[in-house]
Automatic annotation (TrEMBL):
Residues 25-474 form the Aldehyde dehydrogenase domain. One of its GO terms (molecular function) is oxidoreductase activity, acting on the aldehyde or oxo group of donors, NAD or NADP as acceptor. This is Betaine-aldehyde dehydrogenase. The keyword Oxidoreductase applies. It holds the Pfam family Aldedh. The lineage of its organism: Bacteria, Bacillati, Actinomycetota, Actinomycetes, Kitasatosporales. The active site is at E255. Keywords: Oxidoreductase. It comes from Streptomyces viridochromogenes. Transmembrane segments: none annotated.
Length: 486
């Protein structure tokens, strides 16, 4: 096994990062580019032994990092952000090569946001104040104590973005971290370890363990030394993690899947509604928040569909490194098979593919719109995680809200309407962690993010992140008992 591989001209270490050192496993797994199936390299395949070493390193580093003054922690996190910005182009090309999402998005949106994650939580830490309350002369002093080593487990669809959304607040709060990236996109986590070390983050504060969740997940999530587990991924994996974490009652944050609706009312700006609908094909539909269920008022459904088809036909699918490409590949042939299975079962059950409905080759799935789908069918109820949308119509606002809320998920919802009163009425009744009105995907890092129902447990963002990554302590001090009797 090579300790380092070169990906798109960038040198990436294939080993774990534990206690400030590179550590290799005897076995490896193969990392493949979704763009063309080329082998990028052999990556260290973690075992419970490396997990134990990483948690030990995180435990050993915790007291000193927790005691590091906030201003110094914030300074180091800003230095990490500087490092991300300095290597932004490298991070963007490596991420695109590894997970197939658009290079132009990585360059302009995602990687700048990665740097912003560090800056934002560093600055928020400095503004995070203790609170004092008085009870019958006693002072209640509420402080934010670091919780301890945190295990952070992330998916492949937005690897570095989602990892740093956890790493940055966990570190800012004074915790140490063991990060396990997804096995289909392991590379940028390794670059992050280099960047953090160069920024002066002490050894053991951030550790990265590579490998399969099925092989090291349990060791990570059942470890008694771990004080927080934050997971982004699928519902079945979340269930396993929750069961494993139950042994130590380790607090969990779970950001899971969705089956979010886009409600298009007849009073909406129809071109805007069509733009919002076509946007759901971003990242080849591999976005947890994607509004994959189009619910369109029946009086405008025909015109909406006509304009949607026209616009979708102009999308370019192909190499995500090409600036002109709108939709890249699916992460893995296995994912493509899964997507196609959903579509085949739907069409066998009577759904009609208005566009798409088939793979383009072994890596790309054609943007698909299915109509004639029943509310209780698999294609309407289950997350596909590919460029597959369904379209249903509704006659009344009441019916729109009922259909929108009628899945087991509650991650997000989008409403297209020209009527402010309707927007207020409908958003108040939607079950979702995030609701967008006449827009999509915009979010301030100060605002809470998370899902209701099976879409997750807990909220992150701003103070909510520190709520999770800290042990809140209330110290109650009596007015009497002091030697000076003052
Ligand atoms: P996944 O659940 O298969 O894997 C996610 C991570 O969990 C990977 O790192 C994997 O190795 C690890 N894992 C697997 N088994 C494990 C176990 N037993 N113990 C511990 N860890 C284990 O999910 P995925 O396919 O990588 O990602 C797609 C899913 O993620 C979709 O459902 C999507 O909606 C969801 N997602 C949610 C959000 C959000 O913020 N709500 C964001 C992105 C993706």
């Amino acid at each position: 096994m090579l300790d380092k591989i070169t990906v798109a001209g960038v040198s990436v270490d294939t080993r774990h990062w534990i206690g400030g050192e590179r550590v290799a496993s005897s076995d490896t797994f193969t990392d493949v580019s979704p763009i063309d199936g080329s082998v990028l390299g052999e990556i260290s395949r973690g075992t419970p032994a490396e997990v134990a070493a990483a948690v030990s390193a995180a435990k050993a580093a915790f007291p000193a990092w927790a005691a590091t003054p906030r201003a110094e922690r914030a300074r180091i996190l800003h230095a990490v952000a500087d490092g991300v910005e300095k290597r932004l182009e490298e991070l963007a090309v490596v991420e695109t090569t590894d997970n197939g999402a658009l290079l132009r998005s990585h360059r302009r949106g995602v990687m700048p946001r990665v740097a912003h994650n560090f800056r934002f939580f560093a600055d928020w830490l400095l503004r995070l104040d203790h609170e004092d309350f008085a009870t019958r002369g006693h002072t209640n002093h509420v402080s934010w104590d670091p919780a301890g080593p945190c295990v952070l487990i992330t998916p492949w669809n937005a690897p570095l973005m989602l990892a740093t959304w956890k790493v940055a607040p966990a570190l800012a709060a004074g915790n140490t971290v063991v990060l396990k990236p997804a096995e289909w996109s392991p590379l940028t986590a390794s670059l992050l370890a280099d960047i953090a070390a160069a920024a002066g983050l002490p050894a053991g504060v951030l550790n990265v363990v590579q490998g399969y969740g099925s092989e090291i997940g349990d060791a990570l999530t059942s470890h008694p030394g771990v004080r927080r587990i934050s997971f982004t991924g699928s519902v079945p994996t979340a269930r396993r993690i929750a069961a494993s974490a139950a042994a130590n009652l380790t607090p969990l944050s779970l950001e899971l899947g969705g089956k979010s609706p886009l409600l298009v009312f007849a009073d909406a700006d129809l071109d805007l509604a069509v733009d919002l609908a076509v946007e759901q094909y971003d990242n080849a539909g591999q976005v947890c928040l994607a509004a994959t269920r189009l619910l369109v008022e029946e009086t405008v459904a025909e015109e909406f569909t006509r304009r949607f088809v026209e616009k979708a036909a102009r999308l370019t699918q192909g190499d995500p490194r090409d600036e002109a490409t709108d939709i890249g590949p699916t992460i893995h042939p296995r994912q493509l098979e899964k997507i196609d299975g959903f579509v085949r079962r739907a069409t066998a059950a009577g759904a009609r593919a208005v566009i798409g409905g088939h793979p383009r080759d072994g890596r790309y799935y054609a943007p698909t719109l299915l109509t004639d789908v029943a509310q209780d069918s698999e294609i309407v109820q289950e997350e596909v995680f590919g460029p597959v949308l369904t379209l249903q119509t509704f006659a009344t606002e009441e019916e729109a809200v009922r259909l929108a809320n009628d899945t087991r998920f509650g991650l997000a919802a989008t409403v297209a309407t020209g009527d402010r009163d309707r927007a207020d009425r409908v958003t108040a009744r939607l079950v979702a962690g995030t609701v967008w009105v006449n827009c999509f995907f915009v979010r301030d890092l100060q605002a809470p993010f998370g899902g209701s129902r099976l879409s997750g447990v807990g909220r992150e963002g701003g103070t909510w992140s520190f709520d999770f990554y800290c042990d809140l302590k209330n110290t109650v001090t009596a007015p009497k008992g002091w030697q000076d009797h003052g």
